[in-house]
Amino acid sequence: MKREGELMHQFMEKLYPICRSITGDGVRKTLEIIQGMIPLKIQEVPSGTKVFDWEIPKEWNIRDAYILDEEGRKIVDFKKSNLHVVSYSAPVDKVVTLDELQNHLYSIEEQPDAIPYITSYYEERWGFCITHHQRMQLKEGKYRVYIDSELKDGSLTYGELIIPGESEEEVFLSTYVCHPSMANNELSGPVLTTYLAKWILSNSRKYTYRIIFIPETIGSITYLSRNMDTMKTNIIAGFNISCVGDERAYSYLSSRSGNTLADKVALNILTFKKLDFKSYSFLERGSDERQYCSPGIDLPVASIMRSKFGEYPEYHTSLDNMDLVTPTGLQGSFDIYTECIELIERNETYKINCFGEPQLGKRGLYPTLSTKESGRIVRNMMNFLAYADGKNDLVDISNTINVPVKELYSIIDNLYKNGLIVTVDRNAM
Amino acid sequence: MKREGELMHQFMEKLYPICRSITGDGVRKTLEIIQGMIPLKIQEVPSGTKVFDWEIPKEWNIRDAYILDEEGRKIVDFKKSNLHVVSYSAPVDKVVTLDELQNHLYSIEEQPDAIPYITSYYEERWGFCITHHQRMQLKEGKYRVYIDSELKDGSLTYGELIIPGESEEEVFLSTYVCHPSMANNELSGPVLTTYLAKWILSNSRKYTYRIIFIPETIGSITYLSRNMDTMKTNIIAGFNISCVGDERAYSYLSSRSGNTLADKVALNILTFKKLDFKSYSFLERGSDERQYCSPGIDLPVASIMRSKFGEYPEYHTSLDNMDLVTPTGLQGSFDIYTECIELIERNETYKINCFGEPQLGKRGLYPTLSTKESGRIVRNMMNFLAYADGKNDLVDISNTINVPVKELYSIIDNLYKNGLIVTVDRNAM
Amino acid sequence: MKREGELMHQFMEKLYPICRSITGDGVRKTLEIIQGMIPLKIQEVPSGTKVFDWEIPKEWNIRDAYILDEEGRKIVDFKKSNLHVVSYSAPVDKVVTLDELQNHLYSIEEQPDAIPYITSYYEERWGFCITHHQRMQLKEGKYRVYIDSELKDGSLTYGELIIPGESEEEVFLSTYVCHPSMANNELSGPVLTTYLAKWILSNSRKYTYRIIFIPETIGSITYLSRNMDTMKTNIIAGFNISCVGDERAYSYLSSRSGNTLADKVALNILTFKKLDFKSYSFLERGSDERQYCSPGIDLPVASIMRSKFGEYPEYHTSLDNMDLVTPTGLQGSFDIYTECIELIERNETYKINCFGEPQLGKRGLYPTLSTKESGRIVRNMMNFLAYADGKNDLVDISNTINVPVKELYSIIDNLYKNGLIVTVDRNAM
Fold it and tell me: Torsion over CA of B202, B205, B207 and B212, rounded to 10 degrees?
């Protein structure tokens, strides 16, 4: 296994304990740590700002929270798991009966050892999340409930990194930083995105990269409301990066139209890697692709995931922890995404530069030693040329001639060097 | 079961005994009785009138017909079944041998108890139709054959009802009234169409309805020859209504192109009702869709039937009688057709009125009580909005998000009321 | 069986012994014999002429070749099989050890009784091809190798026959004459093409026919480099005729796009003949379609074969001999190709000449005697008319209504005679 998987997993350990929500200091601290890795620009948008059909909510911060039983024992403690408190809980400090308490408790009968992840962003209430096992053991009596939180005018925080390329055309990566201590959904996304940004920065590139770390939904709506026109003009392909850390599956979630460059690239790479990936329609969406692909915005955004949100048992519970996400799982996602980006960078519409088949022999493109391997290369070269008709792009040709793009890159370089192909401007067609 | 099925069946009993053909008093009487239910305008087109490639034939009427055996017994009697005489039989009154008689007899060996339905519209001859069972028992001897019929210059009669709507765009319903006493094919058609017309008249409507009761083939050709331009300009969807009375099947016969609004609506309604319907291609056509969908006319006309003409054993025999057609069978057709019409009335191309997903909560569109049912409604609403892109019409969205239109109507009303969607003029696209 | 199969097989016997290559007297002699059958125009293109990315090579001729063992016995003799010498072998006359000889021998271990067919057009070397069986028996010792061949500036020879028609639009037939004594691949092609040319000459025709007999690859490139513009303007359909002589299979190889008129016609004829043919994609190409369908040339050229090149065990060996190719095999190809040409000649875009269905009866198009056969004809006629909408051509209609074109020809003649259909200019649409 390559090194990035381990590094990403270590980086994740560092971010894991922070209590994030859609606003507040948890997000800020997360973005600052990421800023230590890549030159992120951190933006603040004030509460009350109108963003499309929405409004930036009040900022939420929490210092402490617990439940004490009659004997004063801390039976639930926010400091042990930040999932114990409903995200955006209003402050509370009172003594309640078990009956009253039950109205503010959340647990999952079917997963008695899991603390569920519950939010209440747009309705003011308070609540605690506990394992069902613990809930069953609660006795009649008085309980002191204490949440030291604050809802106040503040701001929504997000991070943005624009990496300029030769072209103004953009590749877009979006991930979200609003989940408390959960691993696959969602710390794997920001961690992988950080390492992809590092990798992009370390390579020469044709396209500009727009990479954002935002709170889900309200963050993408906010970001779109400020950048939509540029994004619609420039973005040629993008990915919403989420749930990329476990080892159990590969998943592909299509854009709304299903036929954007992002979809084409994702399907080509996943298919030729012979990964047994699951394909999900846009009806099974659930993250920021909901905004990016909405009518009138229609960005070319797809998702490649490991186990998809909502499709694995630990999803949105305390069981989605650091054991679930592995260096191997993260590495797999890193490899797929870097191959996708490489393909986007290399994807062109090619056109053969002569009539009929060229004479490969006189150019030394015909192998002198005829082996099975060299025969395959010549066949791939001739098939590439047969479809290099100024209409098919590299992905189309790879699909048609059934050869992975990895095997075509050196063939293309050779043909290019020999003046046998040219690229055609797809916008001018 | 709803009431219409019973009412239709009773109405059918009244029309059943009348001897109809493509012209003559049987058609007139039938249309007059229907006129008692809906404000039908009855039209007469003179014999000899040129209609496209055809000419209106002479008018045929019959008063009586029988066969007497040597003992003077009336062994075949038109008064007992009007199927006994070949439709458009010339008058005859003579004594013939059994051998001569056989040349004018029609029966079905495989259905020995059925009187077949035979016509001879465009060639002058006479004939009797009897059960094969009876034919086998005929003895050598003399028979008196008597048909008191008349072929004379007269006219072709049809009924027309134009129900104006807000729009000049039209929905077209066509049925035929040229068959003698048979039930599924074809008294079910005019009876259902009468009740659909009553239902349309009793509701407010967007579209104009053009509803016609005609003799098959020559009637549709005649009607088209007089109204084709208006019809081609105005009709957005239509149905040829035939064979809609038995309980054994649902059938869909596509238009020639297969992708008109009539086809889309019929398939959507039939599919989501989870009826196990049979789908027939235009190659299996057989009624007036032959004219409506012919090249150069190309009206958007499909058919929804119960057991399709030619596909059930009693077809075109005396066995296609009032026992075969049931209130339940008719009601099923009524329900499907009214749902189709409702869908045509409500079908629009919708467009979401904001960027990104709207905030349902602040508009009270998010249910306060979260149940399985309310979750489904919210999911359907969000999916509806995701595809309300100004390109998909309601049928497209229903198909894409896999939700019956019935469940979308109230969602659309809610979204509309809240200003979250607008309709787009499909002609202006 | 028809007569052409026998005649073609006899003609093939005459051409079989000639030693052909991509240039030289073998090609000339072959073309002269064909010229005895059809008025072929023979063209010479000098060595060194630039043709697209290629150059006409030196001309190669061979008089004799053999290998003598130490006892002076002629163990390999070109006069017994012209496959014994690598095509384009340089002259040689020397004594070599067995070890040195082995470097110049070609045989097939898996087919020990076959002499392989080997060429070395663009690299100067010499070599002998023998059975693996013989090779295994060679003893240590000295061998005299003798090849009396000549590589000199000369020319590339090809034959061309333009058969003018009423229209400048062309049907194109191409076959190749560069293989020494092998039967299915490739003497069957030029032999069948000769008989197709005779058949075309003997019939009246609408289209002009361009028929060429060329060496493979360099020949098609040469021909294209001289005629491309006319060919691109005029050719509406073409076939590369190769491997058309055995009885074991029918094969269809698509054009690059797969949807040209040649493809449509080939698939229609093969499908309705209910031959169990194998369909090959353009990725499995191997003959001059490589040039005809290359990007920027894009001629509508497909292939119908019996056992396809590369797909039968005797391919490119001495086992591909006169026993493999049979009169029946050749006749099958002749029948298919003549049916394809007949269909191309008759293919039109038809349009019904009236609104609605015509009245067949008054024109005598309705059979007076109603039989199963006549019912089928009427049904086919009505179905033909239903799709004669000025958009579908004959192939489309045949496919849609599922009736072989052979059964539609007389129907079309009848409808045409009665003024019920017209043809529509597909270019004017």
Answer: -10
* Core vs surface per residue C300-335: b (16+ CB within 10 A) or e: bbbbbbbbbbebbebbbbbbbbbebbbbebbbbbbb
Structure tokens at B13: 């009993």
Chains contacting A with at least 3 CB pairs below 8 Å? B, C
CA distance A117 to B145: 91
Position A371 scores a pLDDT of: 73
Tell me if A355 and C54 make a contact (CB, 8 A cut-off).
no
Q: Does A355 touch chain C (CB under 8 A)?
A: yes
Residue keyed to tokens 């019973």 = B6
Percent of chain B past pLDDT 90, that is, above it, reads: 92
Nearest partner of B297 among B342, B232, B357, judged by Cα: B232
User: Residue B367 above 90 pLDDT?
Assistant: no
This model of the complex carries an ipTM of 0.94
A389 contacts C296 by C-beta, under 8 angstroms: yes
pLDDT along chain A (429 residues), means of 10: 89 97 97 98 98 97 97 96 96 97 96 95 92 97 97 97 98 97 96 98 97 98 98 98 97 97 98 94 97 97 97 96 97 98 97 95 76 86 97 97 97 96 77
* pLDDT > 90 in chain C, percent: 92
pLDDT band at B429 (very low <50, low <70, confident <90, very high): very low
Distance CA A12, CA A17 (A): 9
**Which of C349, C359, C370, C397 is the best mutation test for B, with the most CBs of B within 10 A?**
C359
Cβ–Cβ below 8 Å for C356 and B256: no
Q: Which domains does chain A have, with CATH numbers?
A: 3-57+155-346 (3.40.630.10), 59-152 (3.50.30.90), 349-428 (1.10.10.10)
Disruptive mutation site among A53, A214, A218, A301 for chain B (greatest number of B CBs within 10 Å): A53
Chain C within 8 Å of A279 (Cβ-Cβ)? no
For residues A386 and A358, what is the distance between their CA atoms, to the nearest angstrom? Answer: 11
| C-alpha distance from residue A415 to each of A374, A405, C51 (Å) | 16, 15, 20
Q: What are phi and psi of B51, to 5 degrees?
A: -130, 105
Residue B362: list chain A partners with CB under 8 A: 122
Please name the amino acid found at residue A299. Answer: L
B122: chain C residues, CB-CB within 8 Å: 359, 361-362
Bridge partners (DSSP) of residue C44 are: C157
Q: Does B380 contact A at CB distance below 8 Å? A: no
Taking the alpha carbons at both ends of chain C, their separation in whole angstroms is 43
Mutate to test the interface with A, among B357, B368, B403 (most CBs of A within 10 A): B357
Give pLDDT, residue C124.
87
Q: Where are the alpha helices (DSSP H) in B42-131?
A: 98-102
Sign of CA dihedral C311, C314, C318, C319: negative
Q: Give tens-digit pLDDT for C212-266.
A: 999 999 999 999 999 999 999 999 999 999 999 999 999 999 999 999 999 999 9
Tokens (6 digits) for C275: 């031959």
**Does B355 have pLDDT greater than 60?**
yes
Residues 6+ apart with CB under 8 A from C265: C237, C340, C343, C344, C347, C395
Chain A hits for B359, CB-CB cut-off 8 Å, are 53-54, 122
Place of tokens 């290099």: A388
Arithmetic mean of pLDDT, B289-314:
97
* Residue A374, phi then psi, degrees to nearest 5: -70, -30
Amino acid of residue C353? N
> Cα–Cα distance between A308 and A278 in angstroms, integer?
9
Contact criterion met (CB < 8 Å) for B355 and A220 = no
CA dist., res. B213 & res. B158, Å (int): 6
Task: Report residue B136: phi and psi, to 5°.
Answer: -65, -25
pTM of the predicted structure, to 2 decimals: 0.94
Say how many CA atoms lie within 13 Å of B251 toward its Cβ.
25
